[in-house]
Amino acid sequence: MNTLELHSICKSYGPQRALEDINLSVPTGSRTVIVGPSGSGKSTLLRMIAGFEFPDSGRLTLNGQTLVDPTHEVPAHQRQIGYVPQDGALFPHMTVAANIGFGLSIKGLEKRERIAQLMDSVALDANMADRWPHELSGGQQQRVALARALAQQPRLMLLDEPFSALDTGLRAAMRKLVARLLADAGVTTILVTHDQSEALSFADQLAVMREGRLVQSGHPLDLYRYPGDEQTAIFLGDAVVMPARIEAGWAHCDLGRIPVNNHRNNRCAQIMLRPEQLQLVGIVSDSVEATGCRAVVTERDFSGNTCTLTVELEPSASADQPGRSLMVRSSGLYAPPTGSAVHVSTIGHAHVLSES
Amino acid sequence: MPETLPAEVAAAIPAPLRHRSRGVFAGRGGAWVIGLSVLMSLLALMPIAFIIGVSVQTGWATLATLLFRPRVGELLINTVLLVAITIPLCIALGVALAWLTERSNLPGRRWWSLLSIAPLAVPAFVHSYAWVSLIPPIHGLFAGVLVSVIAYFPFLYLPIAATLRRLDPAIEDVAESMGLKPWAVFFRVVLPQLRLAVCGGALLVGLHLLAEYGLYAMIRFDTFTTAIFDQFKSTFNGPAAHMLAGVLALCCLAMLTVESAARGHARYARVGSGSAREPRIVHLKTGSTVLALTLFTVTCALSLGVPLITLGKWLIAGGANVWQMAELMPALQQTLLLGVAGALLTTCAAIPIAWLSIRSPGRLQRVLESCNYITSSLPGIVVALALVTVTVHFARPIYQTTITVLLAYLLMFLPRALVSLRAGIAQAPVELENIARSLGRSPGRALWLITLRLAAPGAAAGAALVFLAISNELTATLLLAPNGTRTLATGFWALTSEIDYAAAAPYALLMILLSLPLTGLLYHQSKRTAGR
Predict the structure, then answer these.
(1) Which of the four, A135, B54, B313, B388, has the lowest number of CB atoms within 10 Å?
(2) CB environment B391-403: b (16+ within 10 A), e (fewer)
(3) Domain containing A28: what range?
(4) Which CATH number applies to B43-263+284-313: 1.10.150.20, 3.30.2350.20, 1.10.3720.10, 3.90.1170.50?
(5) Is the same domain home to A63 and A86?
(6) B1 pLDDT exceeds 50?
(7) Do B9 and A14 touch (CB under 8 A)?
């Protein structure tokens, strides 16, 4: 069953189209991530779901209740949708407890107990209840903001880049905490981010936005392996893209013959491989034959646990231009040095990109 | 990014296209806010409408005979000379004092800085009273310029000192590294950056020069305002007074135009990121230090010493007799009452406009705001004349009632409340209001629980400024107040008109005591805008 349904949502600011024909279904209990570069309209979409902005046309339903259609609009305060923005946006004139209790309609002891329970659930110490927002660290502020949004038992939780203000180590920890917390509470969640690794790790449904359009949605692994076009492929991670001729399930390209996932015969197309699908084998002596094609390491970019290598393929005998350069991942410690000759082989399928 | 609509984009979008972004206008509530703001601005336009209306009604022939006569020419020359001499003197004094307190190692410069603002606590007509009782024959242009400079130079000192504190010293370092001598650095780099402060301060002084009645009446220097007042007293509400008011209003509008042209469009904010370093302090040589200390001593002696010594002299001479509690207490009470009522009314009226200007800046809002600014730059006497005429003709029941007085205060002092309130509302980002709504609070409740709570300190500062302006207001109160009203200012005025200077002294003292918090507030605010 789907919690939230968006039907052909459009929105423009004067001549500028912010959202064009957005359709999206969010299944109950899922974690959906909307990812896109800044300016792609993802925050506008989120604010529209929250009820802070209204679409020019389109329909929006939550659990079967119509939130927006051409004839009526439910205002934000009647939607029961939780919202956590980038900086937490705690009310600066209220203590932590007052912030968390803001959305609660209960009073007295019951309220205090509920606040304590909420603070416990986001791993905040009970003695922080009387602190002021400015006395908290960034991560603590985010947790208060989350508890505040959870207090009203929202039908849907919206997170607008909630981790981007935190530093790297804290970000991953917060992400895990939030994911587990929301899963335990069984709250359907939509997260907006421009960080692809955050998107891939948090999502069980990923939606990629670009220039106001929703270009592709699906399971994160599927989107990573089988992106619709080159731009999406590159946005979701490093990619090796090269032209190839497709014949009977095989791609013929500079790397030789590689199996492809989709069969479109006798066509020239772009194929995509992730760098981790390429494997290097050092050539010990000229006499030993290995699979794949020969190449020379031209650049090494060492960054600890991994090392990103640039290799230049040996030019084919017929062509006069130099061979193609490829990016390959290798383990940081055992990467071949610059100038060494290697064999490049591939693992798995190549993905045929559609014409864009 | 389309997520947050930049102000320029929002302004460029015609209103019909924008009507659905209810996140900003919050549905029906938004319509109310806009309606109230429009209403306020129409009210603010009334004095100008009155002048235009009266001019049309009077007809060109009468108008010409009233305007083109030697008396008007004489008043015009007086006013122009007063403005043309006083403003440059105030600028020079303001820049010199501000530089010395902010950029030199002058001994006791924090104290001198406080003393340079202190003259604001003394109402202008009390300055004038002090000089007249010290040197009774003093009168005319020289006296006018002298007392004006003394009474109004803090209006220039304050913004210039604040700007000097904020200037990025790195720019001066760079100028020096390019081979400019210290004097050249000051004139080519520092002074141009003071332009906004100088223009703003000069405008404020200019508008006060045009609007002030008590100061010039006491030292017998005729300006348009004093002439209008005399005309009003002799012929009540005749066309002669109206036409003079029209010329005075034109002078004010001309001054606004000149100021906005002089301000230009250059950018003065710091371009770089990060916070600026501490400004450089220049070490004065002994000779310069002595000169500077002399300048401060003389300025303070004239601007604070003379009023305080005169007051002290009258209070000692009058003894216990001048403390007529039976008259003094009701005057104080009435002043406080009018001040509190006016401050509350003005602050409440400023809320819709301030909210609009922060939450949905655009063309409509700019027009609304400028209506209020233009009216508040009109002299109190013009506003008062307009209100007299309008209430006599159209709203007889409120003529000569407290309502009319409060209405005049509202028109004259709205921007004071507006500026502080706007800064306060800016402290509450719209995101917080949105969050409150997503937590189930209606737009009205969200505004009340979040934005207005956070804006409260700003609103309080604005209300305090309005209160203190009202407690020293003389002209409009004299013209509009119902019979029997006696505030500290009008009481003081009535007594000095009877040359009972000793009896007037307690009133002056009370006004100064009431104004002291204003001075403290201004000092504190100028420190805060400078980020200390």
Answers:
(1) A135
(2) beeeeeebbbbbb
(3) 2-235
(4) 1.10.3720.10
(5) yes
(6) no
(7) yes
Identify the CA nearest to B354 among candidates B410, B406, B411, B420: B420
Domain boundary among A213, A235, A257: A235
B contacts of A73 (beta carbons < 8 Å): 22
Strands A341-346 and A57-62: unpaired
- Assess whether A286 and A318 both reside in one domain: yes
pLDDT tens digits for range B259-313: 878 876 665 655 554 455 667 788 888 888 999 999 999 999 999 999 999 999 9
Give the end of a domain, one of A235, A253, A274.
A235
Q: Supply the ipTM of this predicted assembly.
A: 0.78
**Per-residue pLDDT averaged across A276-295, rounded?**
71
Choosing among A91, A105, A134, A153, which should be mutated to test the B contact, i.e. which has the most B CBs within 10 A?
A: A91
Q: How many independent structural domains does chain A possess?
A: 2
Q: Which of B2, B27, B438 sits opposite A16 (nearest CB)?
A: B2
Assign A291 a pLDDT band (cuts: 50, 70, 90). low
User: B319-531 — its CATH code?
Assistant: 1.10.3720.10
Which residues on A lie below 8 Å from B443 (Cβ)? 75, 77
How many whole angstroms separate alpha carbon B521 and alpha carbon B523?
5
- For residues A268 and A126, state if they share a domain: no
Nearest Cβ partner for A56 among B20, B431, B454? B20
- Residue B382: pLDDT above 90? no
| Band of residue B148 on the pLDDT scale cut at 50, 70, 90 | very high
Instruction: Decide if pLDDT at B361 tops 80.
Output: no
Tally of CB atoms within 10 A around A308:
17
Mean residue pLDDT of chain B comes to 82
Q: Any bridge partners for residue A247, and if so which? A: A250
Chain A residues whose beta carbon lies within 8 Å of the beta carbon of residue B441: 77, 102-103
Size of interface A-B (CB pairs under 8 A): 96
Q: A13 and B2 in contact by Cβ < 8 A?
A: yes
pLDDT tens by residue, A259-275: 887 766 667 888 899 98
Strand order in the sheet with A31-35: A81-84, A156-160, A189-193, A31-35, A205-210, A213-218
